[in-house]
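Revision sheet: C-alpha coordinates.
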Amino acid sequence: MAIITTTVSSEKELEQILQLQQQNLRYNISAETSQSQGFVSLSHSLSDLQKLHEASPSIIAKDGDIMAGYALTQTRECRYLMSDLEPMFALLDEVSWKGKSLRDSKFYVMGQICVAEAYRGQGVFDKLYQQHKITYGASFDCIVTEIATRNLRSMRAHERVGFKIIHTHLDELDEWAVVAWDWS
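Predicted:
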Protein backbone atom coordinates (compact mmCIF):
# COMPACT_ATOMS: atom_id res chain seq x y z
CA MET A 1 0.00 0.00 0.00
CA ALA A 2 0.99 3.61 -0.42
CA ILE A 3 1.67 5.72 2.65
CA ILE A 4 -0.58 8.76 2.89
CA THR A 5 -0.18 11.74 5.19
CA THR A 6 -3.19 13.55 6.59
CA THR A 7 -4.60 14.99 9.80
CA VAL A 8 -6.01 12.91 12.65
CA SER A 9 -9.70 12.23 12.08
CA SER A 10 -10.69 9.60 14.66
CA GLU A 11 -10.22 8.44 18.22
CA LYS A 12 -8.86 5.15 16.83
CA GLU A 13 -6.00 7.12 15.25
CA LEU A 14 -5.29 8.85 18.57
CA GLU A 15 -5.13 5.42 20.21
CA GLN A 16 -2.73 4.24 17.50
CA ILE A 17 -0.52 7.26 18.20
CA LEU A 18 -0.42 6.28 21.88
CA GLN A 19 0.55 2.68 21.01
CA LEU A 20 3.36 3.85 18.75
CA GLN A 21 4.49 6.35 21.38
CA GLN A 22 4.69 3.64 24.08
CA GLN A 23 6.74 1.41 21.76
CA ASN A 24 9.32 4.20 21.31
CA LEU A 25 9.54 5.87 24.72
CA ARG A 26 13.15 6.11 25.79
CA TYR A 27 12.25 4.23 29.00
CA ASN A 28 10.76 1.32 27.04
CA ILE A 29 13.63 0.68 24.60
CA SER A 30 17.24 -0.38 24.98
CA ALA A 31 20.10 2.11 25.07
CA GLU A 32 21.34 0.68 21.77
CA THR A 33 17.97 1.19 20.08
CA SER A 34 17.70 4.67 21.57
CA GLN A 35 21.10 5.61 20.15
CA SER A 36 20.66 4.07 16.70
CA GLN A 37 16.94 4.61 16.07
CA GLY A 38 16.05 7.60 18.22
CA PHE A 39 13.33 7.82 20.87
CA VAL A 40 10.46 9.90 22.19
CA SER A 41 10.68 11.49 25.64
CA LEU A 42 7.12 12.22 26.76
CA SER A 43 4.11 10.02 27.28
CA HIS A 44 0.62 11.42 26.71
CA SER A 45 -2.83 10.25 27.73
CA LEU A 46 -5.76 9.83 25.37
CA SER A 47 -7.33 12.87 27.05
CA ASP A 48 -4.18 14.92 26.32
CA LEU A 49 -4.24 13.96 22.65
CA GLN A 50 -7.97 14.69 22.39
CA LYS A 51 -7.36 18.22 23.74
CA LEU A 52 -4.49 18.81 21.31
CA HIS A 53 -6.53 17.44 18.42
CA GLU A 54 -9.47 19.71 19.19
CA ALA A 55 -7.16 22.76 19.13
CA SER A 56 -5.40 21.73 15.90
CA PRO A 57 -5.27 18.21 14.44
CA SER A 58 -1.92 16.46 14.41
CA ILE A 59 -0.35 15.02 11.28
CA ILE A 60 -0.20 11.28 10.73
CA ALA A 61 1.17 8.86 8.13
CA LYS A 62 -0.94 5.80 7.41
CA ASP A 63 -0.39 2.64 5.40
CA GLY A 64 -3.97 1.47 5.06
CA ASP A 65 -5.12 1.07 8.67
CA ILE A 66 -1.56 0.95 10.04
CA MET A 67 -0.10 4.01 11.79
CA ALA A 68 3.27 4.51 10.08
CA GLY A 69 4.09 7.71 11.99
CA TYR A 70 2.81 10.85 13.64
CA ALA A 71 3.86 14.44 14.33
CA LEU A 72 1.85 16.16 17.09
CA THR A 73 0.59 19.70 16.54
CA GLN A 74 0.68 22.11 19.51
CA THR A 75 -0.48 25.62 18.75
CA ARG A 76 -0.07 28.33 21.35
CA GLU A 77 -3.65 27.70 22.47
CA CYS A 78 -2.42 24.31 23.73
CA ARG A 79 -0.18 26.07 26.22
CA TYR A 80 -2.90 26.01 28.85
CA LEU A 81 -4.54 22.71 27.91
CA MET A 82 -1.83 20.60 29.54
CA SER A 83 0.21 21.85 32.51
CA ASP A 84 3.32 20.07 31.18
CA LEU A 85 3.37 22.41 28.16
CA GLU A 86 3.52 25.71 30.06
CA PRO A 87 7.28 25.62 30.86
CA MET A 88 8.14 24.93 27.21
CA PHE A 89 5.95 27.77 25.95
CA ALA A 90 7.37 30.10 28.63
CA LEU A 91 10.89 29.25 27.43
CA LEU A 92 9.89 29.80 23.79
CA ASP A 93 8.55 33.25 24.72
CA GLU A 94 12.15 34.18 25.63
CA VAL A 95 13.92 32.64 22.61
CA SER A 96 15.08 34.91 19.78
CA TRP A 97 14.38 34.10 16.15
CA LYS A 98 15.39 36.25 13.17
CA GLY A 99 16.43 39.12 15.42
CA LYS A 100 13.23 39.33 17.47
CA SER A 101 11.42 37.43 20.17
CA LEU A 102 9.87 34.21 18.91
CA ARG A 103 6.64 35.20 20.72
CA ASP A 104 6.28 38.03 18.20
CA SER A 105 6.20 35.51 15.34
CA LYS A 106 3.42 33.28 14.15
CA PHE A 107 4.67 29.85 15.19
CA TYR A 108 3.45 26.57 16.57
CA VAL A 109 5.20 23.60 18.12
CA MET A 110 5.56 20.15 16.68
CA GLY A 111 5.19 18.35 19.99
CA GLN A 112 6.62 14.95 19.12
CA ILE A 113 7.41 12.99 15.98
CA CYS A 114 7.73 9.24 15.67
CA VAL A 115 7.98 6.80 12.77
CA ALA A 116 7.11 3.12 13.28
CA GLU A 117 10.13 0.85 13.04
CA ALA A 118 8.88 -0.95 9.91
CA TYR A 119 8.61 2.40 8.07
CA ARG A 120 11.95 3.98 8.96
CA GLY A 121 14.25 4.92 6.11
CA GLN A 122 11.31 5.25 3.68
CA GLY A 123 10.82 9.02 3.79
CA VAL A 124 7.93 8.99 6.29
CA PHE A 125 9.64 11.53 8.58
CA ASP A 126 10.01 14.01 5.71
CA LYS A 127 6.45 13.34 4.50
CA LEU A 128 5.07 14.13 7.98
CA TYR A 129 6.83 17.50 7.98
CA GLN A 130 5.83 18.25 4.40
CA GLN A 131 2.22 17.63 5.42
CA HIS A 132 2.68 20.01 8.36
CA LYS A 133 3.80 22.67 5.90
CA ILE A 134 0.92 21.95 3.51
CA THR A 135 -1.65 21.98 6.31
CA TYR A 136 -0.38 24.88 8.42
CA GLY A 137 2.23 26.75 6.33
CA ALA A 138 -0.05 29.54 5.12
CA SER A 139 -0.97 30.46 8.71
CA PHE A 140 2.46 30.37 10.39
CA ASP A 141 5.95 31.86 9.94
CA CYS A 142 7.65 28.75 11.29
CA ILE A 143 7.30 25.46 13.10
CA VAL A 144 9.39 24.93 16.24
CA THR A 145 10.32 21.86 18.25
CA GLU A 146 12.70 20.71 20.96
CA ILE A 147 15.03 17.75 20.50
CA ALA A 148 17.21 16.05 23.09
CA THR A 149 20.70 16.80 21.75
CA ARG A 150 21.75 13.19 22.43
CA ASN A 151 19.02 12.02 20.04
CA LEU A 152 21.42 12.22 17.12
CA ARG A 153 19.13 10.52 14.60
CA SER A 154 16.41 13.10 15.27
CA MET A 155 18.87 16.00 15.20
CA ARG A 156 20.17 14.90 11.77
CA ALA A 157 16.67 14.26 10.39
CA HIS A 158 15.40 17.70 11.47
CA GLU A 159 18.45 19.38 9.93
CA ARG A 160 17.79 17.50 6.67
CA VAL A 161 14.20 18.80 6.56
CA GLY A 162 15.40 22.39 7.03
CA PHE A 163 15.34 23.07 10.77
CA LYS A 164 18.03 25.29 12.31
CA ILE A 165 19.06 25.39 15.96
CA ILE A 166 17.93 28.67 17.53
CA HIS A 167 18.55 27.89 21.22
CA THR A 168 19.91 25.19 23.54
CA HIS A 169 19.17 24.66 27.22
CA LEU A 170 19.39 22.14 30.05
CA ASP A 171 16.60 20.95 32.30
CA GLU A 172 16.25 18.10 34.80
CA LEU A 173 15.72 15.59 31.99
CA ASP A 174 18.25 16.42 29.29
CA GLU A 175 20.03 18.99 27.12
CA TRP A 176 17.65 20.30 24.46
CA ALA A 177 18.04 22.04 21.12
CA VAL A 178 15.18 24.34 20.14
CA VAL A 179 14.96 24.19 16.35
CA ALA A 180 12.86 26.17 13.88
CA TRP A 181 11.92 25.63 10.24
CA ASP A 182 11.41 29.00 8.57
CA TRP A 183 8.29 29.15 6.37
CA SER A 184 8.17 32.93 5.92
